[in-house]
Design brief:
Blueprint: H1 2-5, E1 10-14, H2 21-37, E2 46-50, H3 56-66, E3 71-74, H4 91-96, E4 101-104, H5 107-113, H6 117-129, E5 133-138, H7 142-148, H8 152-161, E6 172-175, H9 189-207, H10 209-214, E7 216-220, H11 228-232, E8 239-242, H12 249-256, H13 259-262
Parallel strand pairs: 1-2, 1-8, 2-3, 3-4, 4-5, 5-6, 6-7, 7-8
Length: 265
């Protein structure tokens, strides 16, 4: 379990293209109230949300003014810092908004926008240039799983992505089996552990043993309050990247309070 290794668990909610800036304010307020009423331990578990770009300023203002126990980040960023790149969002802009994190290489970006491993490495470098922590998403399709086994494709994706990492800078890795996302059928905790352990070996190869020991690896793919405790009991699973359930207030708050499901962090 993450806390036993000194890695603070991270529960991250990817809203995808949902909630406008007014809805985001209401959601974050209610999430903070729900966690407060449940005596949420902000020191023991980190909670982060990833709203659409148009919501970020509203979320930043709310979190900062009320000192809410919630981090936030962007769903993507440009490999470029500035220039004639219509529709792109610079890491500099995310940093100016107080974003701690940015998602990079989500399976939907790979599938619908043709993002390659090489581009993802460039985006990792861009995030680090501006002091934003990249959450590097990797995962295999059902076809990949059948052809190569469970860890071959995610490990290969991560090895390239880490080429963009700045020495000594923090990264987070999210393993999201594409076949599990939105399917309602999650990987088993044993399956998640097998792949996350392989990913930690890649981190050790590329960034060194110290980085491997401290880097948090998340599982994503049909995560629910009913299955989060099983994932978090695994040695190399340090949190979750939550999709659909992150838009359900009570469900997401319950996922964030996973220690209450197992009695201890």
């Amino acid at each position: 379990m993450a806390a036993l290794t000194g890695r603070r668990p991270l529960i991250a909610g990817n809203w995808k293209m949902n909630l406008d800036h007014l809805q985001s304010i209401a959601f974050v307020q209610k999430l903070a109230w729900t966690l407060r009423d449940a005596a949420f331990d902000r020191a023991g578990v980190e909670v982060a949300v990833f709203p659409p770009f148009t919501d970020l300023r509203s979320v930043q203002t709310l979190v900062s003014s009320d000192d809410l126990p919630i981090a936030f980040g962007g769903q993507d960023l440009s490999a470029h810092d500035s220039g004639a790149y219509t529709g792109e969002v610079s890491g500099a802009f995310l940093a100016a908004l107080g974003c701690r994190y940015v998602l990079i290489g989500h399976s939907e970006r790979r599938q619908y926008h043709g993002e390659t491993d090489a581009l993802i490495a460039e985006k990792v470098a861009a995030a680090h240039r501006h002091g934003v922590v990249p959450i590097i998403c990797v995962g295999e399709t059902a076809e990949d799983l059948e052809q190569h086994g469970p860890s071959h494709v995610p490990a290969a994706q991560l090895r390239v992505a880490l080429e963009g990492a700045a020495a000594g800078s923090e990264v987070v890795v999210a393993y999201e089996p594409v076949w599990a996302i939105g399917s309602g059928t999650a990987a088993t905790s044993a399956q998640a552990q097998q792949v996350c352990a392989a990913l930690r070996e890649v981190i050790a190869e590329v960034l060194g043993a110290d980085a491997a020991a401290t880097t948090r690896i998340l599982y994503g793919g049909s995560v629910k309050a009913a299955n989060i405790a099983g994932f978090m009991a695994e040695a190399d699973v340090d949190g979750a990247l939550v999709g659909g359930a992150s838009l359900q207030l009570d469900e997401f708050a319950s996922i964030a309070r996973f220690p209450s499901h197992v009695g201890t962090v």
